[in-house]
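Retry 2 of 3 after timeout on previous attempt. Resubmitting structure tokens to design endpoint.
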């Protein structure tokens, strides 16, 4: 019998035009290790699952869409806004290398648990920080690419400013109705392209208490 993770990725490969690199990254990361133990059996269904603090781990196809859209090369430095449980950061780490991933989470508990989990699973070189991701991570800038795992009205100015000229910014923009927008930083602004409708939890202001 095929491994449930392989079956999920085979199914995603049939439904989406993902690059081999994206598919290999999805195949490599044990999603079950990122979800609460009561949900382990559902880890390889293509759906979001609760991770506490009213947040969710994104559905596998949504993580695949974002990873694929950024078209990352090994060694590119990437900023993630919204660590959640760390799953998406691990998939990105499979592509660029864990030492190239910088991720910011506003919930201290989620950030701490994600950091511990990433370390246990061999992604200890991923840098995790508690903070307001809308401010980016200035001390580690510039990045080759940045992405939001939560929906904002527009790309936060600090995030776009921390991406090098020619670099990419990606994220769900909008509130009730969201679209996934991929932008390339040009000299004077951003060249934007819509990649279609998506549904993500909202970006919230500031750091959460406790
Ligand atoms: N990529 C995650 C899913 C993230 S859900 C995973 O694989 O699990 C979106 C996350 O963004 C949530 O954890 C939420 O707390 C976080 N978030 C929302 N607003 C934020 C902000 N301003 N700064 C940092 N993180 C934020």
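Retry 2 succeeded. Sequence:
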């Amino acid at each position: 019998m095929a491994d449930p993770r392989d079956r999920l990725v085979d199914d995603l490969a049939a439904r989406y035009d993902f690059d081999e690199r994206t598919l290999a990254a999805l195949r490599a990361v044990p999603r079950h290790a990122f979800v609460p133990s009561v949900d382990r059996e559902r880890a390889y269904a293509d759906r979001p699952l609760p991770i506490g603090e009213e947040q969710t781990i994104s559905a596998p196809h949504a993580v695949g869409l974002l990873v694929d859209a950024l078209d990352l090369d090994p060694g590119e430095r990437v900023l993630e806004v919204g660590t959640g449980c760390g799953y998406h950061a691990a998939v990105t780490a499979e592509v660029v290398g864990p030492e190239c991933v910088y991720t910011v989470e506003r919930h201290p508990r989620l950030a701490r648990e994600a950091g511990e989990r990433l370390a246990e699973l061999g992604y200890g070189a991923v840098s995790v920080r508690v903070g307001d991701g809308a401010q980016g991570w200035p001390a580690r800038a510039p990045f080759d690419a940045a992405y939001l795992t939560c929906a904002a009205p527009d790309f936060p100015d600090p995030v776009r400013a921390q991406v090098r000229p020619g670099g990419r910014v990606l994220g769900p923009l909008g509130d009730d109705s969201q679209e996934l927008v991929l932008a390339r930083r040009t000299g004077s602004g951003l060249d934007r392209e819509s990649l279609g409708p998506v549904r993500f939890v909202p970006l919230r202001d500031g750091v959460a208490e406790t």
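Attempt log closed. The first strand starts at residue 49 and ends at 52.
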